[in-house]
Specification:
6 helices, alpha/beta, hydrolase, eight-stranded mixed beta sheet, Dienelactn_hydro, globular, EC 3.1.-.-, Dienelactone hydrolase family protein, about 240 residues
Length: about 240
């Protein structure tokens, strides 16, 4: 059996490939300084698996989590919003969930991961997929969607096992207050789990410090509460 790596003092990121959805999938795996810890799936924005998501993976790993960021676009990264919108629309929700389920299988099989109960964190497109994945995957016990974009109908949350901490901007035209309220009601009614949906004085993508939309105060607050939530849920 493969043993976890020795502690290095710094997070370690590596490119990995794994079977998923009947094919070979790819992604980033970021290991914590201690070499092992609870697992977390990190799901990309609509831009793809870019440098920003890789940086967030390393930040999570530095906090003690074994992080897998699967590549949902097969190596493609968008360079403008039109391209990102096209790539997002070309990824069917069912296919994305299938790919992510394979990523969960791979993550919990890693010797560095200390439990089969994992977290899922995602942004924009990835925030929506956090909710889709958690709705069908009982091993996800902590779900953190940042301004999650739901494509089409809401998931069926009747099988949800995860606690949910959501982060949204009150100036986000893509996710108005009515959409947040609908999501809150659906999760509560269907699962019996009341989500915590936090709202910040910011717009969409306020966490992405590589974009003009970045709002430092909101991002720092959301990040601190995310780490606290993951530690409480995952140990």
């Amino acid at each position: 059996m493969t043993q976890p790596p020795e502690p290095t003092g710094d997070p370690v990121r590596q490119n990995v490939e794994f079977p998923s959805a009947g094919a070979t999938a790819h992604g980033y795996l970021a290991l914590p300084p201690d070499g092992s810890g609870p697992g977390a799936i990190l799901i990309q924005e609509w831009w793809g698996l870019n440098d920003h998501i890789a940086d967030v993976a390393e930040r999570l790993a530095a906090e003690g989590f074994v992080v897998l960021a699967p590549d949902l676009y097969g190596g493609n990264v968008a360079h403008d919003s039109d391209e990102a919108r096209r790539m997002m629309r070309e990824l069917p929700v069912a296919r994305g969930v299938e790919l992510l389920s394979g990523a969960v299988d791979y993550l919990v099989s890693r010797p560095e991961v200390t439990s089969s109960a994992i977290g899922a964190v995602g942004f924009c497109l990835g925030g929506g997929f956090v909710l889709y994945l958690a709705a069908v995957e009982p091993r996800v016990v902590a779900a953190v969607p940042f301004y999650g974009v739901i494509q089409g109908e809401l998931p069926d949350f009747s099988g949800l096992a995860a606690e949910v901490l959501g982060h949204f901007g009150d100036q986000d035209a893509a996710i108005p207050a009515a959409a947040r309220e609908r999501l809150h009601q659906a999760i509560t009614d269907q699962s019996g789990i009341e989500p915590e949906l936090r709202v910040y004085p910011a717009g969409h993508a306020f966490f992405n410090d590589a974009r003009p939309s970045y709002h430092r105060e909101s991002a720092e607050s959301a990040w601190a509460s995310t780490l606290d939530f993951l530690r409480r849920r995952l140990g």
